UniProtKB/TrEMBL annotation:
PANTHER family: QUINONE OXIDOREDUCTASE PIG3-RELATED, QUINONE OXIDOREDUCTASE-RELATED
Presence of the UniProt keyword Glycoprotein in the record: no
Family matches, as InterPro entries: ADH-like_N, ER, GroES-like_sf, NAD(P)-bd_dom_sf
Source species: Rhodococcus tibetensis
Lineage: Bacteria, Bacillati, Actinomycetota, Actinomycetes, Mycobacteriales
Cited Gene3D superfamilies: Medium-chain alcohol dehydrogenases, catalytic domain, NAD(P)-binding Rossmann-like Domain
Stated name of the protein: NADP-dependent oxidoreductase
SUPFAM superfamilies named in the record: GroES-like, NAD(P)-binding Rossmann-fold domains
Length: 313
């Protein structure tokens, strides 16, 4: 039997359950993966929280979007973006609907090769944050000489945004709580505490405002401060397209932007290459067993150490 996590209903982490299901073989153009590590993302708990509405007909929900593991069975004509796949190949799976499992059967085109340099935990948490970050940096047209403000710069996405923007020659001011300021400095950003007076503190460093904003927080403060400080409003990009951000003119990436799906697929291999060269590092903050998924979600939704949470099957 194989194990996977489902949400039996809508609510808090108490609706989660680990269930056993019989393994199925891969069909044509599919592969079966023995999972080594699974990336945890806020979207995973938002899906069953009711934040995006509720649809009892879609229950139970299969959770998870990204994982890393070893190919164990290959269907006919199973070729991924990097070429034909064989048992024993070490891979990263994204997008991977239902990735919270110890075995996955997925379309071969959702599988890219894992470089030997990348540990399983980092590989599992690389592609949601990494591709989102590159998409936002591209959308904000960040290049050499730009002054960029990043809200939530110590988060999984925000820390990738900082690294990618700095590597393109931008100067980055990143908001985070004080405990994360040294981490932001290590990534190349100037740290800034969020909270009352944020716009004034940024103006000390940027009297003329900033060229662009990337927001991974979506709160009132992030929207207000961005609108006040950005010199070029079309260069405000958010990963959390709350109604106020949309009204304020932020460009939303991800769920609200259907073009993102293809962009993310195209960005997978370049992001893996960045990580392989050491130019993009995913910090793994905590690991949990699959059976501890409810605790992982409870802790991810609170203030937590900077970096990715990873589940181990
Ligand atoms: N649209 C998409 O395709 C897409 C893709 C990925 C993620 N997302 C969304 O993007 C958001 C971030 O995801 P993530 O994986 O990076 O989450 P994460 O790792 O939990 O990071 C969130 C960060 O927000 C910071 N934070 C909390 N309150 C803040 C505030 N008031 N001002 C500034 N920073 C604050 C925290 O930093 P401190 O510890 O320093 O407080 C935390 O590190 C989530 O809402 C997620 O659902 C969207």
């Amino acid at each position: 039997m194989t194990r996977r996590v489902i949400a039996r209903g809508y609510g808090g982490p108490e609706v989660l359950a680990v269930v056993e299901v019989a393994p199925v073989p891969p069909a044509r153009r599919e592969v079966a993966i023995e999972v080594r590590a699974i990336g945890v993302n806020p979207i995973d708990y938002k899906r069953y929280s009711g934040a995006f509405g509720t649809d009892p007909a879609s229950l139970p929900l299969s959770l998870g979007a990204e994982a890393a593991g070893v190919v164990v069975e290959v269907g006919e004509d199973a070729s991924g973006p990097d070429g034909p796949l064989s048992p024993g190949d070490e891979v990263i799976v994204y997008p991977a609907e239902g990735a919270y499992a110890d075995r996955l059967v997925v379309a071969a085109d959702s599988v890219v090769r894992k470089p030997p340099s990348l540990p399983w935990n980092e590989a599992a948490g690389l592609l949601v944050a990494g591709t989102t970050a590159v998409e936002t940096v591209d959308a904000a047209k960040i290049g050499a000489g730009d002054l960029l403000l990043v809200h939530g710069a110590a988060g999984a996405v925000g820390s990738c945004v900082v690294q990618v923007a700095c590597s393109r020659g931008a100067t980055v001011i990143g908001t985070a709580r004080p405990e994360n300021h040294d981490y932001l400095r290590s990534l190349g950003a100037t740290p800034m505490s969020y909270g009352a007076g944020l716009a004034g503190r940024v103006r000390v460093l940027a009297p003329e405002g900033v060229d662009a904003v990337i927001d991974t927080v979506g709160g009132e403060e992030a929207v207000d401060v961005s609108v006040e400080l950005v010199r070029d409003p079309p260069r405000m990009v958010t990963t959390v397209a709350v109604p106020r951000a949309v009204e304020a003119g932020f460009l939303g990436v991800g769920g609200t932007n259907p073009a993102s799906r293809e962009v993310r697929r195209r960005l997978r291999s370049p992001v893996v290459d960045l990580a392989d060269r050491g130019d993009l590092r995913v910090r793994v903050a905590r690991t949990y067993w699959l059976s501890e998924v409810a605790r992982a979600h409870t802790e991810l939704a609170r203030s937590h150490p900077a970096g990715k949470f990873v589940l181990l099957p």
